Amino acid sequence: MPSFALVTLVNDRAQFDACQASLRADAAAFPQWLAVEPNVKGWNAAQGLNHGIEQVDADWVLCVHQDVVFPKGFWARITAALAALPPEVALAGLVGCERSGRFHGHIVDPNGHCFWGDLPHDVVALDEVLIAVRKSSGLRFCVEVPGFHCYGADLCFEADRRGLRIVAIDAPLLHLSTGKLDASYDRASKWLLEKWGARYGHVLPMPTIVVQDEQRASWFRRLSIRLRRRKDRLRRNTNVCADAGCAARELGHNHAAGRGSP
């Protein structure tokens, strides 16, 4: 059985403490978990996460956001899913999309209980809420990514360039936000498009938003990705997951009702 550890970038200690508490209630043996405060060090997200990956001793390092809550059974589920992946899989996460824009994943967030099946499934990019890095792959986040956005997509595109596999697995949790698209996101996405645009037809296949070069991308690729994504987004709450008593879905209902965790 491989070993596992977690790394989280922290700027809200109360939120991180609540996140940790939810896993303590679930994991029989609490894993190594490093909290990194990048603002104190003057680091960007990539520098903070790379520091964490090097500090922890584990085969798989789960880079997870601080604003998540773990449902009952999560730790056993995700560690089993990661352990089952073949050696050529370098990255794994909870939600991702294919080059075509097609979604695969399972999560509960402000959009509700989101499920796109056929899991596990190869993707080209993962949502940054949780990205598990196989440490032996040698992959690390690019420190040139501006600020705290797009670092996960860049890592996935680098893995794809190296011929390594990226996989969306079925281990849902509750994500309390969907991120903030502001001027810093615009800077990071422009940097990402300049670096990777040519490889992906100038429309980047990302789970967040469509990042594209409208002058250089073909109309067909722009339209096909938008239609594929729209179709999947419209179905995210109506697709039925295999778990009749989905713990993440129940956790989301309880949180929305103000009852806390089950």
What's the quick description here?
The chain has 262 residues and is an alpha+beta fold.
Tell me what you see in this structure.
This protein is of the alpha+beta class and 262 residues long. It has a single domain, classed as Spore Coat Polysaccharide Biosynthesis Protein SpsA, Chain A. It contains 8 helices and 15 strands. The chain has helices spanning 13-24, 38-41, 45-55, 74-83, 151-161, 183-196, 219-235, 247-256; strands spanning 4-9, 32-36, 60-64, 68-69, 89-93, 95-97, 103-109, 112-116, 121-123, 125-126, 130-134, 165-168, 174-175, 203-204, 211-212. The strands form 4 sheets. A 7-stranded mixed β-sheet has the order 2-1-3-11-5-12-9, with helices on one face. It has a 4-stranded antiparallel β-sheet with strand order 8-7-6-10. β6 (95-97) and β7 form a beta hairpin. The radius of gyration is 17 Å and the shape is globular. The two termini are 29 Å apart. The model has no long low-confidence stretch (mean pLDDT 94).
Number of strands: 15
Shape descriptor: globular
CATH topology: Spore Coat Polysaccharide Biosynthesis Protein SpsA, Chain A
CATH class: Alpha Beta
Strand fraction equals 15-25%
Please tally the helical runs, counting DSSP H or I stretches of 4 or more residues. Answer: 8
Corresponding CATH superfamily? Spore Coat Polysaccharide Biosynthesis Protein SpsA, Chain A
What Rg do the Cα atoms give? Answer: 17 Å
- From the coordinates shown, what is the CATH architecture? Alpha-Beta Complex
SSE sequence, one letter per element: EHEHHEEHEEEEEEEHEEHEEHH
In spatial order, strands of the major sheet run 2-1-3-11-5-12-9
Report mean pLDDT, rounded to a whole number: 94
For the largest beta-sheet, the strand count, sense and barrel status come to: 7 strands, mixed
Task: Give me the secondary-structure category.
Answer: alpha+beta
Helical content band: 25-40%
